[in-house]
Amino acid sequence: MDLHRLFSSERNLYKLVKKLLSEEGIKPKKKLSQTFLIDAEELEYLSSILRKTIDKQQCIVEIGAGIGNLTTYIASLNNDKIVVALEIDERFASVLRIIQEAFPNVDIVIGDALKIIPSMRGCNVVVGNLPYHITSSLLVAIAKSSFDLALVTVQKEVAERVVAKAGSKNYGKIAIFLQHLFEVTYVKTIPLYKFYPKPRVNSAIVLLKRKKAYDLMSQTLEHLIKCLFSFKRKTADKALKRCLKEFEASEKCRLQEIWRKRVYQLTVEELERVAIACMYANQKT
């Protein structure tokens, strides 16, 4: 069976996805945010980015393989790479086994990506249409893992948040945390009608390229911004006083040059300097 040919046009893809779901008796579950990209051009675009961006012989992890539409494209256009497709819903196992038999570079794993991602070794690229209900949790798990590159489709609103700059309305904890660890790029918007079942909102492709590993400083920053953004409209000086008491940190963490700024105006670089100052000051106490 030439699966790539079957998935080669939007019309074929839409019909094929509906047919496979019907034959397997699968009704997409809203609680799992199950929706499938049915636009051939977008699937090829995602797969071609991987082909151009990563080296040969690398391992690609796909989150939420579902019916296997993206899996098929990735495996076909990246046949020199191993594709490990994760899917939590056992109902898709039989369909995914057909893809595994058709492509020798595909491995199927039925399990929870949130539990699997933190312990994965040997794969440094992750891709997928992230389930809406756990998007933020998955992004954090990817950030704390050993993945060097992530190419993910998320809600457009989430994509706008992760690329937001200091002082903007969308700027917050997830933007700071991801931009601390990655070069974050908003690649493009995907309209909601290119999915089946059709979601309520548009989606967007985001590319994350690793800048640094998650380490002790990253952990300090993560806890710091969690506290600071509970007081995002307060001045940095007042917010830091409250947060440093919580962390039992030294007053030396309070950098004078940022005192008068509001918390939401602090750049990633400024917050990194605060985290480093706290680490250094506490080592001295």
TrEMBL record:
Keywords: Methyltransferase, RNA-binding, rRNA processing, S-adenosyl-L-methionine, Transferase
Domain Ribosomal RNA adenine methylase transferase N-terminal: start-end pairs: 49-212
UniProt-annotated binding residues for S-adenosyl-L-methionine: L37, G64, E87, D112, N129
Gene Ontology terms, MF aspect: 16S rRNA (adenine(1518)-N(6)/adenine(1519)-N(6))-dimethyltransferase activity; RNA binding
One Pfam family in the UniProt entry: RrnaAD
Stored Gene3D superfamilies: Vaccinia Virus protein VP39
EC nos: 2.1.1.182
Superkingdom field: Archaea
PROSITE patterns: RRNA_A_DIMETH (PS01131), SAM_RNA_A_N6_MT (PS51689)
InterPro entries: KsgA/Erm (IPR001737), rRNA_Ade_Mease_Trfase_CS (IPR020596), rRNA_Ade_methylase_Trfase_N (IPR020598), rRNA_adenine_dimethylase (IPR011530), SAM-dependent_MTases_sf (IPR029063)
Family statement: Belongs to the class I-like SAM-binding methyltransferase superfamily. rRNA adenine N(6)-methyltransferase family.
Protein name according to UniProt: Ribosomal RNA small subunit methyltransferase A
Organism encoding this protein: Ignisphaera aggregans
Lineage: Archaea, Thermoproteota, Thermoprotei, Desulfurococcales, Desulfurococcaceae
